[in-house]
C-alpha cells in the first residue's frame, strides 16, 4: 500500500489492497536481539514478544489472533503494514513505560539510537524514511475485539487506519509522532478515539464520514475526546462531513487540545447530523477553526502561553522519547474540562510531569497513567 493518504488528507483513500504473502520464520540478528522477517499472511495465532524485533516486509493480511506484547518493536518496510481482516484480531497493547513501537526500516537499521525519537529529527528539519507505510489497517471484516493501546507509531503515512468498523475498545493511550496522519477513520461505522498524543504529524486526526441508506445505528455518535494534537503542517483534527447527514453518525469533540497547526486547529467540512464541540484548548494555530464552516462551539479555551513542559524539541526527557507534553501547572487547560475527573476514564491519571493524579475538573488533552503507583488489580482495564 503506497500513500494511503497524502499530507492533505482529503484525498480519496480507497485504494487499499490486501496482498497474499508468505511467512518467513527464520530470524536474523541485528544488535542485541534477533530480527524476524514477516512476509506472508498470518493465518495461525501468534504472540510477538520484546525479545525479537519483527520486520514486516510487505502488506500482511492478519487473519488470526496476533498479540503484540509490551516493549515489542515492529519494523516496517516501505510498503509494510498489518491488514486486519477475515475475522483476524490484533491485540497491540503496551504499557505506559513499554509501548509497542512501530517504526520503519531505515531508522531502525541505520539510526537505531533514534528509534522513538524520529519526531526530533523533524523538529530539526532532518528526516529519514519514505512515509509510505501504514502499520495498522483495520478493515470492516476484522474482529471487533481488535485493541490498539499504548502504541508508539512514527514515520508512517497513516499511523492507524480504521475502515468502517466500530471496535469494542476505543483507540486510546497511543503516541503518534512524525507521521503524515496520526489516526484516520473512514465510514459510517466508527471507533471512538480517546486520550492519544499526536505530535509532529502533518494532520493529527482525520475522519471521513460516509452516509448509507441503512445506517447500522442511527443514534450513534463518534466520540473524540481528551486527545492532544500538536504541531503540523495541516490540521489538528479534521472531519469531512456528508451530503446526507441524516444517513451518517453524529460527532462529538470534547476536551481536546489542538496547537501549532499551519492550517486549522479544527477543520470541519460538509454537513453533520449531530455535531458537538465542547471545551477545546487552542494554542498557536494559524487559525483555530476553518472559515468555510462556522459551527457552534461550547466553551473554547484559548491561550497565548505555551502550555507544555518540557519544551517540545528539547532533549530533557528522562522518562523516554514519549515523556513530553505534560501541561504546565498554571496552564489554562488545567481543570478546563466539561466534568469532574472522577466521572471520567482518567481518574488516577495525570497531565502533570510530577505524576500527581488529575483532580477536580478534568484537564484537557492527553493523560498518562503512573504504572508504578497503581497495583495490578487497580490498573486500567
Describe this structure in words.
It is a single chain. This protein has 381 residues and is mainly beta. It has one domain (27-304). The chain is built from two helices and 34 strands. The protein has helices at 105-110, 118-123, and strands at 27-30, 33-38, 46-48, 53-56, 59-62, 65-68, 73-76, 81-84, 89-93, 100-104, 136-138, 147-149, 151-154, 158-163, 171-172, 175-177, 181-187, 193-194, 197-199, 203-209, 221-225, 228-232, 235-240, 250-254, 257-261, 264-269, 275-278, 281-283, 287-289, 301-302, 308-309, 326-327, 349-350, 368-369. The strands form six sheets. The chain has a twelve-stranded mixed beta sheet. Strands 5-8-11-14-17-20-23-26-29 form a nine-stranded parallel beta sheet, with no helix packed on it.
Model regions low in confidence, pLDDT < 50 over at least 5 residues: 1-30, 313-318, 371-381
Number of separate structural domains: 1
- Percentage of residues in DSSP E strands: 35-45%
* Main beta-sheet strand count, sense and barrel state: 12 strands, mixed
Number of strand elements: 34
**Rounded average pLDDT:** 84
How many whole angstroms does the radius of gyration measure? 20 Å
Which structural class best describes the helix and strand composition? mainly beta
Strand order of the largest sheet: 1-2-4-7-10-13-16-19-22-25-28-30
Share of helical residues: under 10%
- Supply the number of helical segments: 2
Measured between the Cα atoms of the first and last residue, the distance is 33 Å
- The global form is globular
